[in-house]
């Protein structure tokens, strides 16, 4: 049993699993989002059902029990929305984040222009993050799938790096210490 557990928890196996996850996210991001959304939605529905059952089996139906019923109904509805609309929720989050980045970028560029007009030599330092924020806003708002592909690729790179480190780095970290 220890050998099986050791194999499953080895850095190589976990890295290979991370590579597979990264590929799945990079290739089929919305399928992954929908699956995760359904799982989270079902979990929230189950929590809601527990609260509703707690009310149903309560001996008294007082204030605390009614709160449990209300909480259960709210959780069940939220779980249903998450399970049914996970892609829309993610798209909404991307839109909100993209708008935030857009506003941040416009403010940064505006501040850089004001600094330049006032003779400050630091205007370029302020301009760079403003432009980067604007670029991120465009990517997030118009190319959300690219963001998912980037996340998937970064997971793959991280996992491959872990495999390489595991192969070339010494197992005993004391080998790094020069005493």
Question: Could you please describe the fold and organization of this structure?
Answer:
The protein is 84% helix and 0% strand. It has seven helices and no strands. The chain is mostly helical. The mean pLDDT is 84. Helix 2 (11-27) crosses helix 3. The relative contact order is 0.14. It is flat.
Query: What is the global morphology?
Result: flat
Model regions low in confidence, pLDDT < 50 over at least 5 residues: none
How many β-strands, per DSSP?
0
Radius of gyration: 25 Å
Overall pLDDT score: 84
* Run of helices and strands: HHHHHHH
Structural class estimated from helices and strands: mainly alpha
Number of helices: 7
Q: Alpha-carbon distance between the termini?
A: 38 Å
Portion of residues in helices? over 70%
Q: Largest sheet, if any?
A: none
Proportion of beta-strand residues: under 5%
Which properties best describe this structure?
179 residues; 7 helices; mainly alpha; single chain
Short description:
With 179 residues, the protein is mostly helical.
Topology:
Elements: H1 2-8, H2 11-27, H3 29-56, H4 63-84, H5 86-117, H6 123-142, H7 144-168
Helix pairs in contact: 2-3, 2-7, 3-4, 5-6
